[in-house]
Amino acid sequence: LIFFVFSFSRSSAKLVASLGCLVPRQKHTLPDLPYDYGALEPHINAEIMQLHHSKHHATYVNNLNVAEEKYKEALAKGDVTAQVSLQPALKFNGGGHINHTIFWTNLSPNGGGEPKGELMEAIKRDFGSFANFKEKLTAVSVGVQGSGWGWLGYNKEQGRLQIAACANQDPLQGTTGLIPLLGIDVWEHAYYLQYKNVRPDYLKAIWNVINWENISSRYASCKK
Questions:
Q1: 57: annotated binding-site residue?
Q2: Looking at beta carbons, which pairs linking 62-65 to residues 24 or more positions away fall under 8 Å?
Q3: FRET partner for 152 with CA separation of 20 to 30 A, picked from 68, 107, 140, 213?
């Protein structure tokens, strides 16, 4: 996946490369879920998963492809005004695609419990205990105003884990520089049909399906 860096201090060619608008450009596609829509029940029901994946994520993918095509046309025309006006759509839909692609793999019907090995040691080192980590990430996610995400990320420069929140669909790495390990979607479409407006209940439930194998694998990869 491509993380977006929006800067006009470099040549337009470099910006195009960062956006993936190279020719020929492969269109983004909706990834398959690694499990059935009902596999995460009772913690996240099938109706939520189907709508979330096949409607919401699909919309981000479709809109990202449209925005990239328009950007390609604006670049070919040398229309800088149009290029600038497309930045919000690229960021929002590109972030939505990036975030959800991570999110689906962060969940598993065989999830829950606690991580093991190096990830668990890092959590204890950086947060004191798994319980403290869980409490802090839950609190940050509950506290997101409106729509957004709670994240566990890896700070490569400092060699440590960090918790962060991002608004709307802002991608973690493109926004903060942290490498995403675990993302918790706290947009209402991720839980409202089952938990109504009680976000804390959804956050309590989601820990039962967290895929620690996936997160541990991400942690090992970003340390290389």
A1: no
A2: 63/89, 63/93, 64/28, 64/90, 64/93, 64/94, 64/96, 64/97, 65/27, 65/28
A3: 68
